[in-house]
Amino acid sequence: MLRSIFRTVTPVVSTFRTASSSLAGRRICTRFVTPVRLYSSESVDKNEITTRVIDVIKAFDKTAASKEVSPQTAFHKDLGLDSLDTVELLVAIEEEFDIEIPDKVADELKSVGETVEYIASNPEAH
Amino acid sequence: MVKRLSGLQREVLHLYRTSIRIAYSKPVDNRPRFFSFIHEEFGKYKDLSRKDFTTIEHLLRVGKKKVEMYSKPELKNIH
């Protein structure tokens, strides 16, 4: 997704440059070029990730809503999810943060804390 | 207790993950249908013995073909 944004950004920059240099010269041109960044620039902080992950889990139909979800909660042991449910939950979390967790990593994620840790380490998460 | 998954089990999980991701690529209103379809398809063979390799391999092949078909962007809804 990020790559597609970059692809669209480059032509925009170049059109700005040609348009502005013909209109008003260099100063405006540099003003256009530097700050073009269309995605959120700050990486999300851990507490926010945790609450969002927990929200996704609570919204997931197979988890009992009454259950307390903390970073220590394990998908299989505490939430009673089988392997397929875990996969489904992780894809839901992927959707929420707009990332794709590779298979190898996803198979190892067994608890809320581990998932939060991974998302925090992923620079593309937002 | 860390359960090691066999290669075949991981393949099934991979197929399931791909199917769910495809369901997310469909229009929001129709997603529940795709989800219940996926649950149904995988649920059919829930009680299959994990030593029944040939059957699982066959189902994986059939499943991959189906995933390929359902992943087409023209396909927006199922009944």
TrEMBL record, chain A:
Family annotation (InterPro entries): ACP, ACP-like_sf, PP-bd_ACP, Ppantetheine_attach_site
GO cellular component terms, A-Z: mitochondrial [2Fe-2S] assembly complex
SUPFAM superfamilies for this protein: ACP-like
Involved pathway(s): Lipid metabolism; fatty acid biosynthesis
Subcellular location(s) of the protein: Mitochondrion
Transit peptide recorded as keyword: yes
UniProt keyword Cell division, yes or no: no
One example GO MF annotation: acyl binding
Pfam families, per database record: PP-binding (PF00550)
The Carrier domain, residue ranges: 47-123
Keywords: Electron transport, Fatty acid biosynthesis, Fatty acid metabolism, Lipid biosynthesis, Lipid metabolism, Mitochondrion, Phosphopantetheine, Phosphoprotein, Transit peptide, Transport
Function recorded in the entry: Carrier of the growing fatty acid chain in fatty acid biosynthesis.
Family: Belongs to the acyl carrier protein (ACP) family.
Name of the protein in its database record: Acyl carrier protein
Species: Zygotorulaspora mrakii
From TrEMBL, chain B:
Main location: mitochondrion
Pfam families (UniProt xref): Complex1_LYR
CDD domains: Complex1_LYR_SDHAF1_LYRM8
InterPro entries according to UniProt: Complex1_LYR_dom, Complex1_LYR_SDHAF1_LYRM8
PANTHER family, per the entry: LYR MOTIF-CONTAINING PROTEIN 2 (PTHR13675), SUCCINATE DEHYDROGENASE ASSEMBLY FACTOR 1, MITOCHONDRIAL (PTHR13675:SF1)
Keywords recorded for this protein, A-Z: Chaperone, Mitochondrion
Listed GO CC annotations: mitochondrial matrix
One GO term (biological process): mitochondrial respiratory chain complex II assembly
Organism this protein belongs to: Zygotorulaspora mrakii (Zygosaccharomyces mrakii)
Compartments where found: Mitochondrion matrix
Protein name listed in UniProt: Complex 1 LYR protein domain-containing protein
Similarity comment: family membership: Belongs to the complex I LYR family. SDHAF1 subfamily.
